[in-house]
Recover the amino acids of this structure.
C-alpha cells in the first residue's frame, strides 16, 4: 500500500488531546498515530461529502 506524507501544524492542545486518546485506544504501537489520523480524515471526508449532497 502506498502511503502519502503530510506535514502539518495544529494547535498544541488539540495535538496533546489527540495523542492521549490515540495512546488510550491503540496503546504505544508503532503507526498508531497514522492509523488514527487516517480514520479522522476519512470521517471528515465523509462528513463534507454528505454536506455537499
Amino acid at each position: 500500500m502506498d502511503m502519502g506524507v503530510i506535514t502539518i501544524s495544529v494547535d498544541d492542545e488539540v495535538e496533546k488531546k489527540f495523542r492521549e486518546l490515540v495512546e488510550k485506544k491503540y496503546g504505544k504501537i508503532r503507526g498508531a498515530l497514522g492509523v488514527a489520523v487516517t480514520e479522522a480524515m476519512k470521517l471528515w471526508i465523509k462528513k463534507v461529502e454528505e454536506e455537499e449532497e
About this structure: Helices lie at 12-26, 32-52. DSSP finds two helices and no strands in the chain. Residues 32-52 form the longest helix (21 residues).
